[in-house]
Specification:
Blueprint lengths: L7 H10 L4 E7 L5 E7 L5 H6 L1 E4 L13 E6 L5 E2 L7 E10 L4 E2 L4 H15 L4 E13 L1 E7 L2 E7 L36 H13 L4 E6 L5 E6 L2 E2 H21 L3 E3 L13 E9 L2 E2 L12 H12 L1 H8 L5 H4 L12 E3 L6 E3 L10 E3 L8 H17 L17 H6 L9 H10 L10 H21 L3 H7 L3
Length: about 475
């Protein structure tokens, strides 16, 4: 698997061989959402691929003002792949955004920021490659209803797998096989009703260039996960965008709805994006040292320490929605206690079992898929590099079940935790962002935190909820 073309010459040849009619240029905004513009293949020239296409940067949230709106999409032809869902042959090309006013990659383009972070690693001399392996979980629902108005707030998601459907009348009858709350880990059919759907997702993911390893039902009702091979920082983030696109589209074309929302169900596990990470130089894994705890090198420990030191600020990028913090509560396999441990899934950082030199890595378990992958990966690496440069030791290792540890004990032992709200993480980011420089500019960080306050925190805090009516109406 991997790349289909390596340069512009191969791109045009590949398009000719596949009778491509449209070129779909895509870029990512601050939320991590893909945007696109489709060109007729006949209108795409080698000069365009080299110099880029103009677009309106003021129409993208939190980007350019209208008086400086002209921006350039710079295609990265090595990312090209055929869209498996369009009626007419279409090739997708992922782009970076170029700032014509400063003559450089745009400081608010997430993919450009990720590229700058990788160059920062290489310029530092600490490493030449950063490998990232995200694990994105998702739910598949049969029906989704949402109301959000001045006098009414309502949502309802439905799935035939949900325990709530046990008494529902179905045309073909109610067969009764359901995983139940927290009962979805690895049951076979008919309890696992998504086998064929996941298989289709896995096959289409391979079509678009991802190397797929496995697929399985996850712990929650209607929840799944597909495992893909790790890659370099930029490529891994590109793969998350492809992964989410494919899973959503396969579900959609099967009459279902796929979501990566962190916590759509009360009382059941949420969707995480566990992120495996390691730094290499000259073909050698710098996170490995045989005989140390978990075979983890001093550099890997310090990298982990840097992430933990800045975790409250990092959360603004790794857990960027108000819903993210409804996942980070005890009892649902979403660790918020900032320590590390070998094989222990209750710690925020796990060292996977049985890893030899090539496979030794850390796994950060607190991020979720609401994150823009380019920003989340770049921010974690910048925090990790700060930890290496300042030799920051993380608390740990701690091998006990941290989910069972009383809050008083956590406080007495001064074990740091993730923030409990998006407001808390954004306020931490305001105080603690020097470690992100110069890759994340001050203007980008300022724009980002204001944007999240305006679009997430303030609207959420202003809305009464059904629980508040339940608990407060008769006060």
């Amino acid at each position: 698997m991997g790349k289909f073309v390596n340069n512009r010459e191969e791109f045009f040849k590949y398009c000719e061989e596949n009778e491509v009619q449209f070129v779909d240029f895509r870029f990512t905004d601050l939320k991590g959402m893909w945007h696109h513009i489709s060109y007729m293949m006949s209108a795409v020239t080698a000069d365009q691929l080299e110099f880029g296409m103009p677009f309106d940067g003021s129409s993208v949230d939190a980007w350019q003002p209208i008086n400086k709106s002209d921006m350039i999409l710079k295609p990265d032809v090595e990312t090209a792949f055929l869209d498996p869902f369009t009626a007419d042959s279409t090739i997708i090309v992922i782009c970076d955004v170029f700032d014509i006013y400063k003559g450089e990659l745009y400081e608010k383009c997430p993919r450009s920021i990720a590229k700058k972070s990788l160059k920062h690693l290489q310029d530092s001399g600490l490493g030449d490659v950063a490998y990232f392996g995200p694990e994105n979980e998702f739910f598949v629902f049969d029906d989704v209803k949402i109301i959000d108005s001045i006098n009414e707030s309502y949502y309802k998601v439905d799935s035939e797998e949900g325990g709530w459907a046990s008494s529902t009348d179905y045309e073909a009858g109610n067969m009764g096989h359901r995983p139940g709350t927290k009962g979805g880990y690895f049951p076979v059919q008919p309890t696992d009703s998504m086998v064929d759907l996941r298989a289709e997702m896995m096959l289409v993911l391979e079509q678009v260039g991802l190397e797929v390893i496995l697929g399985h039902h996850e712990v929650a009702q209607a929840q799944g996960e597909i495992g893909i091979v790790f890659d370099g920082l930029i490529e891994a983030a590109d793969n998350v965008q492809k992964y989410k696109y494919v899973c959503k589209m396969v579900a959609h074309l099967n009459g279902k709805s796929c979501t990566f929302m962190p916590k759509p169900l009360l009382g059941d596990n949420g969707n995480g994006m566990h992120v495996h990470q390691s730094i290499w130089k000259d073909g050698r894994n710098l996170f490995y040292k045989e005989g140390e705890y978990g075979n983890l090198s001093e550099m890997a420990r310090h990298y982990t320490g840097g992430i933990f030191k800045h975790a409250r600020a990092l959360a603004a990028f790794t857990n960027p929605s108000t819903n993210s913090y409804k996942r980070l509560i005890p009892g649902f396999e979403a660790p918020n206690i900032l320590t590390y441990s070998s094989q222990n899934r209750s710690a925020a950082c796990r060292i996977p079992y049985g890893a030899g030199e090539k496979a030794t890595r850390i796994e950060m378990r607190f991020p979720d898929s609401a994150a823009c992958p380019y920003l989340a990966f770049a921010a974690m690496m910048m925090a990790g590099l700060d930890g290496i440069n300042n030799k920051i030791e993380p608390i740990g290792p701690m091998d006990e079940d941290l989910f069972e540890m009383p809050l008083d004990e956590i406080r007495e032992r001064n074990i740091p935790q993730m923030p409990h709200t998006l407001r808390g993480s954004l306020e931490a980011l305001i105080r603690d962002n020097d470690f992100l420089q110069p890759v994340f500019t001050k203007d980008m960080v300022d724009t980002y935190q204001h944007y999240k306050f305006e679009t997430q925190v303030h609207p959420d805090e202003a809305r009464p909820t059904a629980f508040e009516f339940k608990s407060t109406y008769s006060c």
